[in-house]
Amino acid sequence: MEFKRGWSADVGEKLASLANTEGGVMLIGIAADDTVVGLSEAKLTEVEEKVANACNSVQPPLTPQFERVLYQGKGILSVCVAKSSDVHYARGGCWVRVGSTTRPATPDEVTRLLQDKGKLPTDSLPVRQASYTDLQEDKIKRYIEERLRTTTPRLANGRGTQETAISLGLAKREGERVYPTVAGLLFFGVYPQQFIIQSTVRAIRFRGTDVNSRMILDRAGLTGTLDEIIDASVQFVARNMKVARLIEATGRDIPEYPIAAVREAIANACIHRDYTIVGREVLIGMFDDRLEVESPGGLAGHVTLENLDRTRFARNPQLAVIAFELGKAERAGTGIPRIKHEMATLGSRPPLFHASRDTFVVVLPSRHLDLDDP
Question: Which pLDDT belongs to residue 300?
């Protein structure tokens, strides 16, 4: 929420910052100290026209909702802007909202805004520090052969492996050189972490229920291609989780977590994380009472915690396609329902989801919390 005593030349950038971030409301007729000063009817009309013109000068233009509010006998103009699917620029700059302040976005923030709004998929960008020889061409050939057999019979069309890889978004030609893309390196690189160091997954089994535990029972830094990392991460969880046996006629084994839900949570974290955040890895934390999978980057697009299991948006669409075709993840938009279903089938408490501007966390409660209720 932004308060304005009256018309101000920075209205356009303030509203652009709200649209670029989480949306919000500007109330004109209220001083910075929260004093309601109000505007006359004529002034309301004048200010509304100026705000509309400022919104038209924003690129792309904003379409706010205007409302005149009478409060304590004084007129206030409410200007409401929703979170936008575009990135908006005002007075030559891109602006973001941080708390109650508006400031210019840094180049990295502009990149993340474009990525989160689906305007610049990071996984399709070329990695110019690498070359085509940093890809496993034999693995690419197997992938192409499988796609030719199952989904895209006209894919090759007489082209060689390199040209087909380019058409699939695994590499890009720039002049005389061919560079692997982020997606190409992450799934088919000889050693992806040489160029994309943040693609490592860090897994830790703590003793106790918090990260301040004085004892770590197991830990691993998992590297390789994403399909290898996902498999290794699932194996880490499987070897560190307990399996209880109920003393009954059938002698049923009850694992702490359904492996299908574990795989989906880890795959989602690796595929949908924000790869523009260089200094952070996907973190897997195992505790006595829960499993946490933390992914760098908040929820992207129009996905919120409220619509998480029914809204589809892939921050890295190429990675999502490859992961599905390699059998490492569900189709886009079906992973969260799958996690919920698998947890319910095992009889576990429901999974929990936490999101901030730069982090998304999936929490799977241990089934063993309720072993008296099998």
Answer: 80
